[in-house]
Design brief:
Shape: globular
Largest sheet: 9 strands, mixed
Mean pLDDT: 93
Number of strands: 22
Number of domains: 1
Number of helices: 8
Distance between the termini: 13 Å
Low-confidence stretches: none
Length: about 325
């Protein structure tokens, strides 16, 4: 059967940081947190922040983004609405309120959630006015930033059949197909879409190139706030990639971990494999990536997951997953 979607679950490590702050309380920069049923909290990085990081990494990889060509009208940002030209409009969608054109993102991302509770750590920063030409007696100011060391789980769902596929209502002005030199114009089956409906379909090679670059952006993922003094690496330490003939975020609740004293981090195998088994009849392919030496139960992970797909390093797994696109 045809692969309709790619489900990706990954685990990243932050040694010390505040990737996505919430607001300021007095002189304290507060991190974004979710309250658990027992009253404790875990940090999280918003989906909006993760999408921003993916955009930035795609730009690093040489892609032209649509943002410099958007128009600002009062409080509204009007996008170019040229997804065949701009990779970010293709993968992440847009809203054009003036032209009543909207594209829902074919690449869905979750918030990236901490797997361990926030412990209340803070980083203390100071600024001395002496460095700005004042006397020592003039003093300065102090500020604090909530920080954490944590593993984070993230999830991505890619609707393959929607990447490079632009419905008339997503791109048309007054029903007229726009000029799109790297697309084919097709008529849509009336039994499914209604009469006189059409779509633009991006050339296959260009679609594949865009999706491969998105995979590369996951390999190189980093970003967030305060990177000048709290640089973090959000590339996966573990990744699970599954090609599906249905659309479902398989790994959304499948990644859990615990810390075992001197042994270090242990990734929960039972919860992960149960999620895979649940969707075994819809799975077309599966690949797993694991950074050597990071998880204490690495050997067990390799032994168990090899029954469901290939086990490689994270970079090798993401690169091999590109074969699911053809």
């Amino acid at each position: 059967m045809t692969i309709k979607a790619i489900a990706i679950g990954y685990v990243a490590n932050v040694s010390a940081g505040n990737v996505n702050a919430s607001h300021t309380e007095g002189n304290v920069m507060v991190t974004k947190k979710i309250t658990l049923p027992d009253g404790s909290t875990v940090p999280y990085i918003s989906g909006q922040a993760i999408r921003r990081m993916f955009r930035d990494r795609l730009e690093d990889l040489g892609w032209q983004l649509s943002e410099p060509f958007a128009a600002v009208d009062g409080q509204e940002v009007v996008p170019p609405v040229q997804p065949w030209k701009y990779i970010d409009e293709d993968l992440f969608g847009y809203m054009d309120t003036r032209g009543n054109r909207r594209r829902t993102s074919p690449v869905r991302v979750s918030s990236v959630i901490g797997l361990f509770r926030y412990q209340g750590d803070r980083d203390l920063g100071t600024r001395s006015f002496e460095k700005f030409g004042k006397t020592m007696e003039a003093g300065g100011n102090m500020f604090e930033t909530e920080i954490y060391a944590n593993l984070f789980k993230g999830n991505i769902l890619i609707e393959l059949d929607r990447v490079g596929f632009y419905l008339d209502r997503e791109v048309a002005e007054k029903g007229t197909p726009p000029e799109a030199p790297n697309c084919n114009l097709i008529d849509l089956p009336p039994e499914k879409w209604g009469d006189k409906r059409w779509a633009l379909v991006l050339y296959k090679d260009e679609k594949t190139k865009r999706l491969e670059s998105f995979y590369d952006s996951l390999i190189y993922l980093w970003g967030g706030g305060r990177t000048a003094r709290m640089l973090v690496d959000l590339s996966p330490k573990f990744v699970a990639i599954m090609g599906l003939n249905v659309k479902h975020p398989v790994f959304l609740e499948a990644l859990q971990a615990r810390f075992e004293g001197d042994n270090g981090y242990v990734l929960d195998i039972e919860v992960l494999t149960e999620s895979i088994k649940k969707f075994e009849d819809t799975k077309e392919d599966a690949i797993f990536g694991l950074d050597p030496g990071f998880f204490a139960n690495e050997d067990e992970l390799k032994a168990v997951l090899s029954d469901y797909g290939d086990i490689l390093t994270t970079k090798e797994a993401i690169n091999k997953a590109k074969t699911m696109l053809s």
